[in-house]
Specification:
Layout lengths: L4 E11 L7 E6 L21 E4 H9 L2 H4 L4 E5 L7 H13 L4 E5 L7 H8 L3 E5 L5 H8 L4 H12 L4 E7 L7 H12 L4 E8 L5 H6 L14 H11 L3
Length: about 240
């Protein structure tokens, strides 16, 4: 049972942007979305990356326990970590036994299966990436409807699982005033939101697309400036 393996892209031992405190960050391999702004394009293929067992990964994490505790923990991101939910269930069970806080960075574009429910029962924090609040625009941006991720957000709220809402601010795509007001209304309908994080769009991952000989579709989209973020914060009433 303990030999169940997962596929990881990379590990970061002193992460500071994926949850509270200092985090041990696990970048899982594989993603089914097609986000045009993705800066980890090399994580999409579920069958590449490095294979690792739960015990091997826990052994690596424990070496950093003095640094990540008491205020930090472990965050799994990707790629899309929920594609490997059975592996993460085993991992998070082990981490909870060792009193290490857990977090998942996810799009939430999944049905609420028994595996997802069990995994979330061992999860202290969800960093939920709302791709786009408008369903049609979401399909154009990431290739999928937003219905599952909004339902996922409601499940987290109904079960009082703490969440940080994340939104990538892509000028001309995710920063429309009407869309932002709709997003604000949706967030206000949730009772478990601890923080809203705005992620400024950038092209730092463009070279990964080029390395894979793939077309980067947002070539002509400008990066989000501090003024862009200030405007969105004002609309969403983020201090």
């Amino acid at each position: 049972m303990n030999q169940l393996t997962g596929r990881i892209h990379s590990l970061e031992s002193f992460g500071t942007v994926d949850g509270p405190g200092i985090r041990y960050v696990i970048f899982m391999q594989g993603c089914s979305l097609k986000c045009k702004y993705c800066h980890n394009r090399d994580t999409w293929n579920l069958h590449s990356g490095t294979e690792i067992t739960v015990n091997e990964l826990v052994e690596k994490i424990e070496k950093y326990k003095p640094y990540i505790l008491p205020n930090g923990g472990v965050t799994v991101t990707g790629g899309e970590p929920l594609l490997q939910a059975p592996f993460l269930i085993r991992l998070f069970k082990k981490l909870k036994e060792k009193n290490i806080p857990t977090a998942i960075d996810t799009s939430g574009m999944f049905d609420i299966t028994n595996d997802i429910k069990e995994l979330l029962s061992y999860t202290d924090l969800v960093l939920l990436d709302i791709k786009h609040i408008d369903d049609e625009k979401c399909k154009k941006l990431v290739g999928f409807s937003n219905k599952k991720e909004l339902n996922f957000a409601r499940y987290l709220s109904d079960n009082n699982i703490p969440v940080w809402i994340r939104q990538v601010i892509v000028p001309g795509i995710t920063d429309d005033n009407e869309d932002l007001l709709k997003l604000k209304k949706f967030i206000e309908s949730l009772k478990n939101v601890k923080k809203i994080e705005l992620m400024p769009y950038h092209q730092l991952g463009k070279y990964k697309w080029e390395k894979l000989d793939l077309k980067y579709e947002l070539e002509d989209v400008k990066t989000a400036t501090s003024d862009d973020i200030k405007r969105v914060k004002k609309i969403l009433e983020i201090k």
